Amino acid sequence: MAKFKKGNNQSQTEWVERVVSIQRVTKVVKGGKKMSFRTVMVVGNENGKVGVGVGKANDVITSVRKAVNDGKKNIIEVPLTNSASIPHKTVGKFGAASVLLRPSAPGSGVIAGSSIRTVLELSGVKNILSKQLGSKNLLNNARATIESLKTLRTYHM
Question: Collapsing DSSP states into helix, strand and coil, what is residue 42?
């Protein structure tokens, strides 16, 4: 966990970082094979802000750092209800992946799989039902979840 100051305010926002996947990728070049790592990270404060980032580098530590920086650049605001759920049903699409999100009764928890669960937990959602449709790609599902959370509106917005 890392703490970062938010603007000129004295209040600090505590960001939680979670790894979705670390993959070793190989590129075939003239002299042989070039190996590197691709990391998908989710960054959130568990209070309505979340972002997904991707980093690629020759070692794992650098790729994680790049993914965290990318995730912080892509932070979105998620409107939550009093019962820590979403206001209404929504569908998000990214690439071939589609994600269906529905509000759930208090106490039901986060019913989601793979990277969708990580994005929802770090955004602060406590009661939700989700279904992953189409692709099973972790990165596309995480980004489809972000797209569906972007479309959420409340009565007060």
Answer: strand
What tens digit of pLDDT does each residue of 61-70 get?
Answer: 999 999 999 9
pTM: predicted TM-score of the whole model, two decimal places: 0.86
Structure tokens at 148: 């569906």
Question: Could you tell me how far CA 94 lies from the centroid of its own chain?
Answer: 13
pLDDT single digits (tens) 113-125: 889 999 999 999 9
List, in sequence order, every residue forming a beta bridge with 49; answer none if it has no partner. 77
List of domains in the chain: 2-76 (3.30.160.20), 78-150 (3.30.230.10)
3 state DSSP class of 135: coil
Other CB atoms within a 10 A radius of the CB of residue 14 amount to 11
Residue 5 binned pLDDT confidence (cut-offs 50, 70, 90):
very low
Tell me which H or E stretch contains 120: helix 114-123
- Pairing between β-strand 97-103 and β-strand 128-134 as defined by DSSP bridges: antiparallel
